[in-house]
Amino acid sequence: MSIDLTGITLTYPDGDSRLTALDEVTLHVPKGRLTAVVGPSGSGKSSLLAVAATLITPDHGTVRIDGTGTAGLSRRDLAELRRRTIGIVFQQPNLLPSLTAAEQLQVMAHLDGRRPARSRTRALELLDAVGLADQAHRRPHELSGGQRQRVNIARALMNDPTVLLIDEPTSALDHERGAAVIDLITGLTHDRSTATILVTHDRTHLAAADETVEMRDGRALARAAGEGPAAGQEPVVT
Ligand SMILES: Nc1ncnc2c1ncn2[C@@H]1O[C@H](COP(=O)(O)OP(=O)(O)OP(=O)(O)O)[C@@H](O)[C@H]1O
User: Fold this and answer.
1) Which of 40, 48, 95, 125 is the most buried (most CB within 10 A)?
2) Strands 33-38 and 86-89
């Protein structure tokens, strides 16, 4: 149960040439560990998450999820792999306005063909796990920003993923609510043994990470949790 990115290079079209967004990035996140990814705007953080989520195929390098290589899989098989093993939390919760918190989660199980009664039980368990047991009946406009983000995180857990990929989950929250969401992510990573990658701008979150990777111009520089800014330029990581 892990996610392994090895020698990932990703380029985008840029006029007559190509822009290198990821340059030989290697990253190994074992189960039960939280890796934070930081770096300036444009350094490749979102691209890294998109490759890890198998939403973008890199030019070079391999992505292995729980030991399974993704190269050569059909779009259908990739979609299946994503649905079964990867939980993705985007920056904006993107909740459906007309559904209650519990129903936002049940939609995921419905897409997976599971029975409504069982999915309701699981949705309520997960809302409880993220501290929203008493908010299951509320619609998004009746929840605070922090509560909406918790629903977003619970929804990503609905299919019991082994890999959690989280993009800037606290950007719309004040410091206190942001810190609570990071605590939640740390706890879920350890309790549910997910391999978690957290992209964040906020360096105060780094203390919660088991490892930090600093992105610079598409390259990954590693440093241990709690250290100051990456000093060396050596490519990283384990
Ligand atoms: N679809 C795209 N087409 C062309 N270039 C892109 C595309 N997406 C990203 N880029 C470029 O790739 C580089 C890395 O972008 P990326 O979004 O991964 O960085 P980031 O670190 O997530 O930035 P931010 O913190 O601002 O979200 C940037 O130079 C960006 O302009």
Assistant:
1) 48
2) unpaired
Residue 3 Cα, ligand 1 centroid: separation in angstroms? 22
Query: From atom 29 of ligand 1, which residue's Cα is the shortest distance away?
Result: 42
CATH of 2-93+161-224, one of 1.10.10.10, 3.90.1150.10, 3.30.1490.190, 3.40.50.300: 3.40.50.300
Tens of pLDDT, residues 79-131: 999 988 999 998 887 899 999 999 999 998 777 766 766 789 999 999 998 88
Strands (E), the chain: 2-14, 17-30, 33-38, 60-65, 68-69, 86-89, 163-167, 195-199, 211-216, 219-224
Complex confidence, ipTM: 0.97
Instruction: Tell me the CA–centroid distance for residue 94 and ligand 1, in Å.
Output: 21
Q: Residues 164-171: what's their mean pLDDT?
A: 90
Query: pTM value?
Result: 0.88
Q: Is the pLDDT of residue 204 over 70?
A: yes
Is residue 94 helix, strand or coil?
A: coil
Confidence of residue 132 (pLDDT cuts 50, 70, 90): very high
Q: CA 105, CA 73: separation in Å to the nearest integer?
A: 28
Distance 194 CA to ligand 1 centre (A): 26
Atom of ligand 1 nearest to the CA of 44: 18
Closest residue by Cα to residue 95 from 53, 41, 59, 144:
144
Question: What DSSP character marks residue 138?
Answer: -
Q: How far is the CA of 42 from the centre of ligand 1 (A)?
A: 5
User: Residue ranges per domain, the chain?
Assistant: 2-93+161-224
